[in-house]
Design goal:
Oligomer: single chain
Distance between the termini: 58 Å
Order of helices and strands: HEEHEEHHEEHHHHHHEEHHHHHHHHHHHH
Radius of gyration: 28 Å
């Protein structure tokens, strides 16, 4: 109670724009604070966060940063509730909560909070606040469930604007990118199916080796060119989306302080206010001296697991025939081990990144992504490199790549949809059972109530609360508090690994693109289901691109050039129709081809500009018109 009063008094003092109401979680035996924002606070928050909104045509049109003084110049600015989306509203609440800070060191319930840090974030780190999350909006969530999750997706299209208005720009960018990627996979899927049919027709014939060489060469070159065009077209599409959403120049999210950052207090060189100082170079380097060896040890563990699986594989080959179903067990087992190591390292990477103590939230996010990319590159691709370039077994490479793609697809569906939904259902049943015991309701009556609508009634739209919980008076906020927390890192990482399977080794396995397309068609559904049925509503974050993941995908595109040339060198069978060329000469030829392909990639990148010309023209026109409108206003003020 003392901590709750402390929090309420500090919010009332430092953020009067927020409205705080106490809300008891009866069955969890704790209290919650429901925080909303006044209309005056929304106008002020939009100005402080430099939100860009559409300007009326008579004032130059386009978009510009919102100011209270010029509120009348913006479209639909009569009411704050209709002017701002719910995601913008909760982002403003988060903004004001982060501004609540102590002016001096204070202690409550034996916990000391230092000045210069976010008060709410500090209490969360010290576990005095168990969690902070936005509540779902009943009508908007019901609409998303009906049109997005249960509705038909025409040509994989996502309701990007509705996702942005409800979940924020960062998540909307992910689903828009996933749509773009899925539609782009149609090309390698079709080409792969045609080439696979060609190989099937020539199987066990004298022409088989020649056609395998042709298919590998064509598909390798096609995938390298396709991946370059896909990534460049996405950057172009990303610019269009950022411009349309008014975040083309946005840099707000990159300056947010990491809530887990801790350091000494000192005056800011810019404002002079007391704030946490960045770590010195030596202090940061000492932390890296601990985290980097641990990451290397994890990589060694992954390599050791792969070698152990191949020891088991050799044992099975010696004792069982290839026709036995046990012969495929090593590939499936290795896929499961790889995914298990991925989950374990994901948790380890979180701990190591928190220990590195990054000051900015975006720096912490980039450091976490870098660790995951390095580990996943070894964990997910090392086996395929080993098979392709050490064992040089094309049939085994095809089987292992197919096993990775299929098992990851099944595992993804279970982990992202079934498991979170089951965990949420179990927690709800636990709360209902506590309610039953507290109220003296019989188990038979509870079962009849709960079976009627726990978590799957799209009509409720209140975070999954159905008729059973309502009958036992379990509130929507209390039910949402047991839901999982969403992060887009796992979704991006899954697509990054899949993208590598397609562009690195599909020259040896033409069906890789088709299997990826099937997986992504399901992924569009499972990810939307997960967000709308099984997860808490995440805080809306501002973004103008997919961030560091763009660099990660581009790096994989460059690696693909070298890998595909190496695959051609090993499995090309050029000796079948280039008998006069020896291995060394063939390697020199492929190195020259590799450099030519790099040049082709560079040419494509230059030919497809990141920002369309019409956006540059529109930005210049909007700036000109707004300057003219401002000049007229200044002239009128001078005359008066």
């Amino acid at each position: 109670a003392a901590v709750q009063e402390w929090v309420c008094s500090k919010i009332a003092q430092d953020a009067p724009e927020l409205i705080v109401k106490k809300f008891p979680f009866i069955h969890r035996q704790c209290d919650a604070l429901l925080i909303s924002i006044s209309e005056e606070g929304m106008w002020l928050g939009a100005e402080e966060r430099m939100v860009e909104k559409r300007v009326r045509e008579e004032y130059g049109g386009g978009r510009r940063r919102f100011t209270i003084q010029d509120r009348h110049r913006f479209v639909d600015s009569e009411s704050a509730r209709s002017f701002f989306s719910t995601s913008e509203e909760q982002a403003m609440i988060c903004h004001f909560l982060l501004t609540v800070q102590l002016s001096e060191k204070e202690t409550c319930d034996g916990v000391t909070i230092s000045p210069g840090v976010s008060f709410v974030s500090a209490l969360s780190v010290k576990n005095l606040i168990s969690q902070v999350f936005p509540l779902h909006s009943k009508p908007e969530l019901a609409s998303l469930r009906r049109t997005w999750v249960k509705g038909s997706i025409k040509m994989f299209r996502q309701p990007s604007s509705a996702i942005r208005d409800y979940f924020g720009q960062r998540i909307a960018f992910y689903f828009t990118w996933l749509q773009h990627y899925t539609m782009a996979l149609v090309a390698p899927a079709l080409v792969g199916l045609v080439l696979y049919a060609m190989l099937y027709q020539t199987a066990n014939t004298p022409e088989e080796a020649k056609y395998e060489c042709i298919v590998a060469g064509v598909l390798s070159l096609f995938n390298v060119v396709w991946s370059t065009i896909f990534l460049e077209m996405w950057k172009r599409r990303s610019s269009e989306i950022a411009f349309d959403w008014g975040v083309f120049y946005s840099k707000t999210s990159s300056s947010q302080i990491n809530p887990h950052f801790h350091s000494t207090l000192g005056p800011s060189p810019i404002t002079g206010n007391m704030e946490l100082q960045p770590l010195s170079f030596m202090a940061q380097a000492m932390r890296y001296c601990i985290t980097v060896p641990i990451v290397l040890l994890a990589l060694c563990s992954s390599i050791g697991a792969m070698l152990a699986m191949y020891y088991i594989r050799d044992y099975i080959e010696l004792n069982y025939t290839k026709d036995s179903y046990i012969a495929v067990l090593p590939q499936v087992l290795l896929s499961v081990v790889v995914m298990g190591l991925s989950i374990g390292f994901r948790r380890l990477a979180n701990i190591l990144t928190m220990y590195e103590n990054h000051r900015l939230k975006e720096d912490s996010h980039s450091a976490l992504v870098l660790k995951l990319i390095v580990f996943q590159f070894i964990n997910s691709y090392l086996t395929l490199f080993y098979i392709a370039f050490w064992r040089q077994d094309l049939d085994e490479l095809k089987m292992q790549l197919a096993a990775f793609l299929v098992t990851r697809q099944l595992f993804s569906i279970a982990r992202e949809s079934i498991l979170p939904f089951a965990k949420q259902y179990t927690k709800k049943i636990y709360l209902v059972e506590k309610s039953r015991k507290a109220r003296g309701v019989s188990e038979k009556e509870v079962d009849s109530r709960v079976t009627g609508g726990v978590g799957v009634d799209a009509g409720t739209g209140d975070g999954g609360v159905g008729g059973g919980e309502a009958a036992l008076q379990l509130s929507a906020p209390e039910m949402e508090s047991v839901m999982g927390h969403y992060t887009d890192i796992d979704d991006y990482m899954e697509m990054w690994i899949q993208f590598g399977y397609v562009v690195l080794f599909s020259g040896a396995f033409p069906l890789a693109g088709f299997l990826a397309l099937v997986n992504n068609t399901l992924e569009l559904r499972t990810d939307s289901f997960k967000l709308c049925f099984s997860m808490q509503r995440p805080f809306a974050e501002e973004a103008n691109s997919i961030g560091v993941w763009q660099t990660a995908f581009e790096a994989l595109g460059y690696v693909a050039v070298a890998v595909n040339c190496a695959v051609l060198l090993v499995f090309g069978r050029f000796d079948q129709w280039l008998s006069s060329v020896n291995f060394i000469q063939m390697m020199i030829i492929l190195v020259v081809v590799e450099h030519l392909i790099f040049g082709l990639k560079a040419s494509i990148m230059v030919a497809i500009p990141d920002v369309p010309g019409w956006i540059k023209t529109q930005l210049e026109r909007t700036h000109h018109l707004q300057q003219q409108a401002l000049l007229v206003r200044k002239t009128c003020l001078t005359c008066s």
